[in-house]
Each structure stands twice: as structure tokens, then as C-alpha cells.
Amino acid sequence: MRKLALMVVILGLVGLVVGGSAQTQKPMVTAFQEEPDFLDPHRTTRFHSLVVLSYITEPLLDMDENFDPVPLLVQSFEWSEDKLTLVFHLKRGVLFHNGQEMTSRDVKASYERYFRLSPLENYIGPKYGGITEIQTPDDYTVIFKFNNPKPLALFHIADAHASIMPADWLAEMIDEEVGVRGLVGTGPYVFDRWIRGDRIVLKRFEAYNHAPDYMKHDGPAYAAELVMRIIPEGATRLAEILAGNIDYTFDVPLMGYQQIAANPALQVKMAPTYSVQYLVCNMKREIFNDRRVRLAIAHAINKEEVVKGAWFGIAFPLYGLVGPGTTGYWKGIEEIAYAYDPEKAIAYLEQAGWTAVDRDGVRIKDGRRLELTLISFSNVDQWKAAAQVVQTQLARVGIKVNLALAEVGATYDRARAADYDLGIFRNTWWMGQPYLTFLTHSVNIGSSNFGQWKNDAIDTLLDLSSNALDDALRRDAFIVAQALVVESAVWVPLAVNVNVMAARRDVGGLDELFSHPWQPPLMRALVLYKQ
Amino acid sequence: MLVPTLIGVTAIVFSLMHVSGDPIRLLFGPNVSEEKVLEKRAELGLDKPIYVQYWNWLSQVVQGNLGLSIHVQDRVGRLILDRIGPTLELTILALILTVAIAIPAGIISAMRPYTIIDNASRFIALFWVSMPYFWLGIMLMMVFGLRLRILPISGRGGPLWTLEGLKSATLPILTLGLPPIALFTRLTRSAMLEVVNEEYIRTARSKGVRETTVVVHHGLRNALLPVVTLLGLRLPWLFGGAVITETVFAWPGMGRLLVNAVMERDYPVVQGIVLVIALLTVLANLVVDFAYVLIDPRIRYG
């Protein structure tokens, strides 16, 4: 009898240990709407590629919940007084998936490849006065020599695009095969296989133990295997989530949000993301030279209505072009943004001479109807719906909007040719700078500045916010730049997307994950577990 | 005719693909400088006139090289090879399903015209044909995948000869195979109705030949010619249906690859798939031509 009792106690203890541990041999299944193009950190610019490869490869630094760069593959780092030398002391014993230890040689080879191949190396690259020399005095020290001071360099070094891969492995591979045939990094998961159009399978890297300090768990990851299924169709993804076949996903179809939220077997979490949608006036069109017309449009837009009408209420109104999930976000922008006020909009139009109204309710000036063409993307329901809501809102103040919706390629063609009056666009970037530069700096007219507008003050402030060595000056310049962009009414921010995560009830770690403003993929890999 | 057909089809598609959209801009997104875009365009030869690009592509193809995908940076041949199997699985099995149901249904309808059986068979066939692939797929998924939970909702569980593979292929095959049943049933029925009134059928019956032999050997064999012709012509339609079915069921086939490639203006991939589909269509029609000989020995090709 005593033996039996003892066995029960032992079995109970074993059960406690096993049950208490979050480590599991079961695969964790997640779903993606879009398939990565390829998983080469140095070459891809795709969001979904970056998410997936962030489970496998890592940059030297990471960004914590306060948007501060923190060590990931390095023990510490220091700048020289003149900000032209940056010294990294690498962590010792960090292993690549092929068993090699990461050394300074790997960092040098990775950065050289990054500068050679990345379409994004526009800030710290040698071509732009950034890192012109990489020294490796010993295995664990890397020295970056800059031509010009680059005060935002740490943010770019924390970008997953600048991930470190083994020098020997890179030397063996041809560039096009990296991230297509295989990928080797230091991340918590090892690339196992990719069945194109179906799934990507990753295996836990048992030797992983160097998570950044802001995470409670150093590694290895809890789930032994991670299956990333590619399910492009929203209705199918929804069915898979409701059936409990997906452990967690950030690609929740918005039309099914209510169903998912009401399902007791599922849990839902939300946070603003860094993907923003905005309306823009093409300043090459004469009508917008009159600021009052732009102000009328800005006041005629009801952002809450746009969020409800286009995003089923699952998004947040956006007040500045830099959203709350982006570095450099300034909350004061909410006070500056033009409030929804149709009366004011009408008053501005009348001041601008658009006083008469025809029998269709469209305003007329000098015999010309206030009729504008709005371009946007037809292949995403939310953009289509946002365009329709804006069309309705502007009609209320006497502006007729003709929608010209087309798929992405055709719309971008029109945008770059400046063949539109208004446009609704989206952009995704996690660093406020250079993000605002992409959207509003005059150097990007013809590429990503769809306002097609050169404003010297904005240009100067953006340059300062990028290059000034004084932290306070840089921060202030960025705040003023954000304010000027909104005040110009050339860009009318609409909505910031929400990261909606749906997970089965037995998936844990969600609270810790959502303590970080953008739930980085590395954190998803390390803190989520199956109970 | 094979070579001119393939050149014509690929040349038209190549021109249409260049009407709008820049593959490099779509690859890089809006936040990459114009300089980088121009560099990449030059690297891939996309800065050359369209006829030069087409010629370059054609010269590669005759050497057996379909080129490199702009979007996923993998060999087009390898991409198509990975995806053609799952698509052929769906299309061939869907075609077998269609024929297996439609031909007997058409024969029964023709043998018992204007009876309840005939009306029921026509009604059921029309019921399936009225359903768009997309809607039918979602409905099947909701009923058998989500409600009854007897079949997987989406994805390819494995090769078809495994249980998981077979289960995961069932709903996509039904989605692709059920709607065309109406067309083939109607065609078989009308062809059979024409044939059963022929003198040789009456003669066979009057000689006391068994009814099954009369219907299958004498009737169906002659009625099959238009059905077989339609089968050959339906192949491109089946690929069209596969595009939708593969998207709904997250099936890793060539149809989805084609859709993505079109959206991304990935010319080499689109060209490669169009070439393969055109080849398969031409081959299918060749098979149909040979089938004529088997069905009707009077037909001879010089």
C-alpha cells in the first residue's frame, strides 16, 4: 500500500514537472496570408519574409518595448566621441545552426553582403557615407568605421535585414540560393523545409540561449516544431482558426473577427501596428495649390467612420503619418490633426470660391465642377471600402469623387506618373525615420512621396531628424516635421492597422508578447507556448 | 501547328503583361530608391525593349531554360515542377469524376427521356453547374471540414496515395469536378438520343442483341465523339477552375503560382506556366485526335 502511495506521489511529481514545463514536442501551427518571396534577409523587402526569417536569423541588436536598441548577438557596444567609430563586443558561445560559433568574421562577411545586395542600404551603407570599413581585431570584436556620423545607425543595425549568417556558409552559397534552398542563422528556429504554396517548417534550435534582456525566457523556444501554413483566402483561414487547426495567427480575417472573438475556444489580442493608411492630395494638380481646398478635405474626413466602414472597427484612427507602433511617434499630433467638421469644410470651400452647387450637389467654380479622381488598390477589400467611405464623406460637402481602383501594379504606375487627384495608400515601416522621409521628403517625389510636393521646411527638418548628432535636436526636428506634414493637409492620415492575434486557449505567453508594442517575431518564437 | 501556337500564345501574354505594373517596384515596395530600382531593372534586362526581352526569353526556352523568377528568385522550371503535380492531381481526378458521373447519367437520361429519372438527372446536373467554384468550395469546406469535421479544411496532406493526401484532395476534387457534370450529361444525352434513333441501332435490337451491348457498344461508341472533343477543349477551363479551387483550399498548385506571378508581374513565371498550359492543351487535343481513331475505326490520319 505504501509502495503504491509512493508511486502515486512520484507520478504526481513527474506530472507536475512535465505539465509545468511549457516545452513541448508538439508542433505549433501558425497561418500566414501571404507567402514570403524568399528568406534572404539581405535581399528581401517583404514584410512576411521578414517575419519568417526573424525566427531563423538575427541582427546584432534588437529593439525593446521602449523602442531602444538593445544587445542581441553582442555583449555591449560603444560609440567614439566623434560618432565615427562603433565598437561591438560579441557574445561568446553563440552558435549558428550548423554548429559553428559566431565570430567577428561572420559579422564582417554578413555586412559586406548586406551592403552589396540589399536594396535598402540607404542609411548605413558605404555608398551613403555610412560604414566604410569593418575591422575585426579579434574573434569577438567588430569595429564599424563611419565616413559621416549616422546617429540612427543603431536602429538600422537592429533591423532584421542586417542579420548575421556564417561567413563560410555564405561563401559556399550562390547569392540567389540563400533563403531559397536553405538559411542558416543564430535564431531560435532552424530552417527545415519549405513546400512552396503550402507550408514552411522550422525546428527548434536546442542550443539557443541568448534572448535579449527584455524577454523573460532566454531560450530555447518552447515548441519543438513550428509549422507556418500559407492560407491566402480569408474564409479558409477563418474556417481553420474556428476549427482549432491553427494555434495562433496574426493574419486574422477582419470579416470574421466577431466570430473568433465570440468563440470560447479562442483568445484574441489586439495592438496597433506600424502599417498606416492615408489619403493624399496630388500637389501637381492646380486645384490643391489653394490650401483651403486641402483643409476642406481634411475636415470632411471622419476617421472613425473610415475605421468602422472599411476595417469593421478593427483599426485605430490615425492622426499623423507616423503611427503609435512606430519609433519616433509623437502623441501630441492628436491635438494638431484636423478634426472632423463638415461645417468648417464647407466654409473653407466657400472661401475658396466654390460657392455654387449644381443639381447633383457638386460645387462649381468658374463653370468647373469640383470633381476629383481618387486612385487606390482594388485587390484588398479594406482599401476599396476606405475609398468608398471617403467618396461618400467628400460628397457630403459637395466634392464629387470618381473612384479609379485597380490592382497594385497598375495603381502604382498611375501614382508614379502623378495621374490622379487623390490617392489612398498604405505604407509599412517600423522606424519613424526614414519612414517619414519616404513619404514626404522631396527626394522621393516620383517614388514614394505621393503628395508630389516639395516643402523646404519639411525637407530640412527630416534631414535634421536623420543626421543631427544632438539627440534632443533630432527628436524635436522629427516632432516638428510630423506636425508640419499634418498641418499641410497634403496628407490626411486615415487609419492605423491593428495587429490582431487569434490563438487557441491552450496557447500561453500572449500577455508577455503584447507587452511589446509590435510583438516582434523573435519574441513570438520565444515566449509563445502550448500548455 | 504546335510551334506557331506556342509562340503566338506566349507572345500575346508577354505583351499583355507589360501593359501595366513594374515587377521591380512590386518586388521592392515603395520605400526603395529609384536608383536601386533602375539598377535591378538593368540587371534583369527589363530595361530593354519588349521585343528584345521576348527574344531573350525565347532563346533561353529553346535551350530548355525557363529563366529565373523575378519575385521568388528561384528557377522557373523548378517552381513549375514543384507545383504541376498537385494541379494535375486535381484536374485529372476532377475530370475522371465528371466523366464517371456525367456519361452514365447522360446515357440513362437518353434511354429514359422525359421520365422522372431524366428530369432528376438534368435537375441535379443543373444544380451543380449553377454553383460558382468559389462558393461551392467554401460550402463544401464549411459542411465537411468545419461542421462535420470528416475532411480537412485546406492544404495538401501529402501524396494522393496516402490516406491524408486522399482526404485533403477530396473537397478540391469535388469542387472542380461537380460543376461541369451538367455540360457533359447534356452532351452525352443529346448525342445518345441522336444515335438511338439510327437504323443500325434498330437493326441491332431487331437481331436480338442484348440491350447493354446495343447501348454501350453500338450507341455510346458513336455518341462519344462529341464528348471526347469537348473533353480536350475543357482542359484550359479546368486549369482556370483550378486557379480558384487552389486558392480556396490553399492547395499548392500551379494555378496559385500563376495568380501570384500575374499580380507580381513575374514575367518569367507567367510565361513558363502559360507555355506549360498551352503544351498540355495541345497534347490533350492530340490525345483526343488519337481517341477518335480508337472510337471510330473509320477515321484515319494520313
Low-confidence stretches of chain B: none
Write the CATH homologous superfamily of the largest domain in chain B: MetI-like
Query: Largest interface, by Cβ-Cβ below 8 angstroms: which chains and how many residues each?
Result: A-B, 48 and 49 residues
Task: Tell me the strand percentage band of chain B.
Answer: under 5%
Task: List the quaternary state of the chains.
Answer: heterodimer
CATH topology category name of the largest domain in chain B: MetI-like fold
The rough form of chain A would be described as globular
What is the average per-residue confidence, as pLDDT of chain A, rounded to a whole number? 92
What's the story with the biggest beta sheet of chain A?
Answer: 7 strands, mixed
Strand tally of chain A: 22
Distance between the termini of chain A: 33 Å
Please describe the biggest sheet of chain B, giving its number of strands, its sense, and whether it closes into a barrel.
Answer: none
In DSSP terms (H or I, runs of 4 or more residues), the helix count of chain B works out at 13
Radius of gyration of chain B: 24 Å
Query: How far is it from the N-terminal to the C-terminal residue of chain B, by CA?
Result: 16 Å
Question: What do these coordinates show?
Answer:
The complex is a heterodimer of chains A (531) and B (302). Chain A is of the alpha+beta class and 531 residues long. Chain A contains 18 helices and 22 strands. In chain A, the strands form six sheets. In chain A, strands 11, 12, 13, 17, 18, 19 and 20 form a seven-stranded mixed β-sheet that branches. Chain A has a four-stranded mixed β-sheet with strand order 1-10-9-8, with no helix packed on it. The longest helix of chain A is centred in the N-terminal third of the chain and has 19 residues, at 2-20. Chain B folds into two domains: 2-62, no CATH class; 84-263, MetI-like fold. Chain B has 13 helices and no strands. Chain B has helices at 2-17, 23-28, 34-43, 50-62, 76-111, 116-129, 133-147, 163-177, 181-196, 199-206, 211-248, 254-263, 267-295. In chain B, α5 runs antiparallel to α6 (116-129) and α9 runs antiparallel to α11. The longest helix of chain B is centred in the C-terminal third of the chain and has 38 residues, at 211-248. The mean pLDDT of chain B is 87. Classes of the chains: A alpha+beta (531), B mainly alpha (302). At the A-B interface, α6, α13 and α14 of A face α2, α3, α5, α7 and α11 of B.
